[in-house]
Design a protein that fits this description.
By secondary structure, this protein is an alpha/beta fold. The chain is built from 15 helices and 35 strands. 21% of the residues lie in helices and 23% in strands. The chain starts with 9 loop residues before the first strand and ends with a helix. An 8-stranded parallel β-barrel has the order 4-5-6-7-8-9-10-11. Strands 20-25-24-23-22 form a 5-stranded antiparallel sheet, with no helix packed on it. Residues 1-8 and 527-691 have low confidence and may be disordered.
């Protein structure tokens, strides 16, 4: 009997930071490059769950099953710090909806049992109008330190979504854009000064035959700026087209908004339209393709802006293999990028959905009666992504962990072996692509494969190299002492449910480590190399002055001085005044450059003092992500485009001299700076071979 193997063992580089509790002193939130931050600049990670309030009754689901205070306490206890609370436009724009009490709204649909349930569990809510009832829920969540993102889900209160449901795009039957703008302004005004509401999402899943880019640019701009003028404290969340799966058109024409540091983009990722046979029989390749497609269509925005994966989820009642594999693939990406996110969904059942009273929600974290967690397995899988794994203010050494998203567990090293444990603790590893995976701290010891079916070991022999393999690039393979490729595996066959880490034959891969055309095993079981994390706030000025101090005639001016800033400029000046002043601007982001993991902006510099001819061509500046765009004096403007292998990107600015001036014995030199930034000196003739 084949041992069940690990799904996507996955090395993540991180600087771990405890989540920051959001208090009134932390508000309002704003954005800083790709991060959501507090008023003091600390990262606030949105780890949310959806809670529906946009259906026929226009009250949040579940208030007929459990007290609101108990539901709010449950949300907090499950590790969520935020609720994406959905609402319908008509509730705020049409008097025959706005003026209804909760009791009257339920009576309109003859929901007598639900009304009785609300009377039993939340009697104080029945006499409130719908707006007051929503505010009572927001306030209860705030009392449990749970933030609220108000999401305009539909106009006409009903289930969402379909191409021709009348709620899809501006101008549809129920989607009057002017009424929509009025609704946004009303909600923004109602919650102005309310610390519980930290963001507004303008519209869920724009879609349908009417959707077009011109209308999107026109009304999204109006909506965002109306929200900001009315309530400048809240973040403004912008969604895309095609069910919030595409914003690719922003690559050609960016959205220009006057809302300060409040812009967040959102996207959704579900496997509904994916061919089932691809996930079942070509899972490595298809996971890789699905991830790249997500990044290309909408996920690319997280390089420059906070990106909120505001919906993802799976059937937790009757788990399907396709959805389970999709979830592991998605969680690997979310963990790697440390995205903001919101799981679909909290509710275990609905008051009324699509004509059915009491319909159960199989995607819900809670059971139909709202009194238990539906899936402890899903709760476990969310462990790591509920933590802050990257911190723009981190000043400590980063490290890697081995994460297993199928179970949500992390690899720990014990006295008698290597095991899976919950992600409250983990072993800290160091890894460069294609090299050994070594434990950090104390004497150097490395992860090694001994043989098929045998436990993986940690040894002082660091000759084992680990490589990223498979189409998904979510598996780590190494050779054993006989030269055979093996992948990490998990022995759970013991009577006590042992979680010892083994090495076994790599599933669904040939002897050349390429994906086989068809595989009926579950290959989502083997490791991934490290990915960048924890962009630091580091003074570039101090570093460059230190490096350029080899000449007292050279001075450097940099503005601004922090890497966390989305852009910066450098000016290099040198006497005599005949030397031209050069500058460069670039977008800062992160990337896995060539075979090196880089989690800082890295500068490559060379300064030479020569004759007039040398001065003329003294310095050329090159952007690795935008090769060849030279100005008249060698200046380049990088645009933040990535060429890395699905990882983060960094715009690395290279300051080099021509080969005529590169005769020093220092033609190539490398050293570590703060443990993770790789700094090189490269002559220009050799530059392309390093790119």
């Amino acid at each position: 009997m084949r041992h069940p193997q690990l799904t996507v063992f996955f090395l993540i580089t991180l600087f771990f930071s405890r989540p920051v509790n959001v208090s009134s002193d932390s508000l309002p939130l704003s954005t800083q490059s790709r991060w959501v931050v507090s008023s003091s600049g600390d990262r606030i990670k949105l780890r949310c769950v959806n809670w529906s309030g946009h259906l026929h009754g226009m009250v949040v689901e579940g208030i007929h099953k459990q007290p609101v205070k108990d539901i709010a306490a449950r949300v907090a206890s499950l590790g969520f710090n935020c609720v994406r609370l959905t609402w319908a436009t008509y509730m705020f724009t049409r008097g025959h909806h706005t003026n209804l009490t909760v009791a009257q709204s339920l009576e309109r649909w003859n929901l007598t049992d639900a009304k009785a349930g609300v009377y039993k569990h939340n009697p104080h809510v029945l006499g409130l109008n719908l707006l007051e009832a929503q505010k009572a829920v927001v306030d209860e969540l705030a009392a449990h330190d749970v933030m609220v993102v108000l999401d305009n889900h539909v106009s006409l209160p009903k289930w969402c979504c379909a191409d021709k449901d009348g709620n899809g795009f501006f101008g549809d039957k129920y989607f009057n854009p002017h009424e929509w703008l009025k609704g946004l302004a009303t909600v923004a005004r109602l919650y102005k000064g309310n610390p519980g509401v930290i963001a507004m999402s303008m519209r869920n899943e724009l879609r349908g035959p009417r959707q077009n880019r011109r209308g999107w640019y026109k009304y999204i701009k109006k909506g965002a700026e109306i929200i900001h003028r009315t309530n400048p404290d809240v973040l403004v969340i912008v969604s895309g087209l095609s069910y919030d799966t595409s914003l690719r058109f922003l690559k050609q024409k960016p959205l220009k908004l006057n809302i300060g540091k409040k812009l967040v983009y959102e996207g959704h990722w579900y496997p509904f339209v994916d061919p089932t046979e691809k996930w079942l029989y070509q899972p490595n390749e298809f996971c890789g393709n699905a991830t790249r497609l997500f990044i290309d269509k909408i996920g690319f925005l997280q390089i420059q802006f906070p990106f909120f994966l505001s919906e993802f989820g799976m059937n937790m009642k009757d788990v399907e293999e396709k959805q389970d594999r999709y979830m592991s693939c998605l969680l690997a990406h979310v963990a790697e990028q440390d995205l903001e996110w919101a799981l679909w969904t909290l509710q275990g059942s609905y008051i009324l959905r699509e004509g059915k009273v009491g319909m159960e929600e199989s995607f819900g974290m809670l059971t139909a009666n709202w009194d238990h967690v539906r899936s402890s397995e899903m709760q476990s899988r969310l462990q790591l992504i509920q933590q802050i794994n990257r911190d723009p203010k981190a000043h400590h050494r980063s490290y890697n962990i081995l994460f297993h998203p199928k179970t949500g567990q992390c690899v720990e090293v014990g006295e008698d072996g290597i095991y899976l444990r919950d992600c409250k603790s983990w072993a800290r590893w160091s890894h460069l692509k294609g090299g050994p995976i070594s434990l950090m701290g104390g004497d150097r010891r490395c992860l090694a494969a001994v043989g098929e079916g045998l436990p993986a070991i940690v040894t002082s022999n660091c000759s084992s190299n680990w490589n990223m393999v498979s189409g998904s690039k979510l598996h780590l393979a190494s050779r054993d002492e006989h030269g055979r490729y093996l992948c990490l595996d998990w022995d759970s066959s013991g009577s006590s449910g042992s979680s010892r880490i083994l090495t076994n034959k790599c599933l669904c891969l040939g002897s050349d480590l390429q994906d086989v055309p068809r595989c009926e095993d579950d290959p989502q079981r083997q490791c991934r190399p490290p990915t960048p994390s924890a962009s630091r706030s580091l003074s570039i000025k101090l570093y460059l002055r230190h490096y350029l101090s080899l000449s007292s005639l050279v001075s450097v001016q940099i503005s601004p001085f922090r890497l966390s800033s989305p852009s910066f400029s450098i000016s290099v000046h040198r006497a005599p005044p005949t030397l031209p002043s050069l500058s460069i601007s670039a977008q800062i982001s992160l990337c896995d450059w060539d075979s090196h993991t880089v989690d800082e902006i890295a500068f490559f510099s060379w300064v030479h003092h020569g004759d007039d001819e040398d001065q003329r061509k003294l310095i050329e500046m090159v952007s690795l992500v935008n090769m060849g765009r030279y100005g008249s004096r060698g200046s380049v403007h990088g645009n933040g485009r990535c060429f890395s292998d699905g990882g983060h990107c960094v715009v690395m600015i290279v300051v080099v001299v021509s080969s005529a001036m590169a005769s020093s014995s220092q033609s190539i030199e490398s050293f570590d700076f703060w443990s993770s930034a790789l700094l090189l000196l490269v002559p220009i003739d050799n530059l392309y071979s390093y790119c």
